[in-house]
């Protein structure tokens, strides 16, 4: 039945633990209508591509890394941090509790390095244009359908919010229904980055961010489509009150054999090395179709 409803589910990249459960949730959301729906998503490697033509695409942090806004010495240190901490972030044999201190160290050191570079706010748009940052194929349809149906899109990102906003603004999809919760730089009177604002968001504390910022959620929208690419993204909707239905879609981009069991046991739909938004778009198309 699910394949008749949404033929795109037949893609070889699609894996589901319980097809009937997925079908029930999608039907419930369609019956309830778009006025009850909100989409909660990660950004880096979820709405953006993980790779293109075999080359890794930059995250929001890497946009700065690949720019002329930071020194070669800083780039080397950022690469060293990635080489040390990324294997920890994706290590399926470690618990989130074990990973969190390492993630705090990583983000703290990376942010300190960036602030030392005296980055100018007015240079960010050009850095994004030069970076090769890419949204997943189908991004325009995704953002436009949500906008046209007045469905809120809340983006929780452990990346750099200033860069994230430049990416979506540069693609002309920063619609009024989009809200971003991320790590933002603070600027002095001359427009030079001098600090990061507020509480740090890393890969594994988005739940705390969600609970501390429950005003971000639309509380009469009790159905949630959640998109993520790490186990830390699974709890981004914990601030939603009176949740009726949630469908969790996970992008498994890397170390597939090592991580598949963990993803299939926690996400309702797992998309393996799928650089498109075909499945979220197909689900939204079904939900938003006029009855």
From TrEMBL:
Quaternary organization: Monomer.
GO molecular function, one term: magnesium ion binding
Biological process per Gene Ontology, one example term: nucleotide metabolic process
Descriptive protein name: 5'-nucleotidase
Superkingdom, taxonomy of origin: Eukaryota
Catalytic activity line of the entry: N(7)-methyl-GMP + H2O = N(7)-methylguanosine + phosphate; a ribonucleoside 5'-phosphate + H2O = a ribonucleoside + phosphate; CMP + H2O = cytidine + phosphate
Tagged with keyword Magnesium: yes
Subcellular location field: Cytoplasm
PANTHER family documented for this protein: 5'-NUCLEOTIDASE, 7-METHYLGUANOSINE PHOSPHATE-SPECIFIC 5'-NUCLEOTIDASE
Keyword Oxidoreductase attached: no
Keywords annotated in UniProt: Cytoplasm, Hydrolase, Magnesium, Metal-binding, Nucleotide metabolism, Nucleotide-binding
Source organism (scientific name): Silurus meridionalis (Southern catfish)
EC main group: hydrolase
Family to which the UniProt record says this protein belongs: Belongs to the pyrimidine 5'-nucleotidase family.
Lineage of the species this protein comes from: Eukaryota, Metazoa, Chordata, Craniata, Vertebrata
Protein task: Specifically hydrolyzes 7-methylguanosine monophosphate (m(7)GMP) to 7-methylguanosine and inorganic phosphate. The specific activity for m(7)GMP may protect cells against undesired salvage of m(7)GMP and its incorporation into nucleic acids. Also has weak activity for CMP. UMP and purine nucleotides are poor substrates.
GO CC annotation: cytoplasm
Pfam families the UniProt entry points to: UMPH-1 (PF05822)
Entry EC no(s): 3.1.3.5
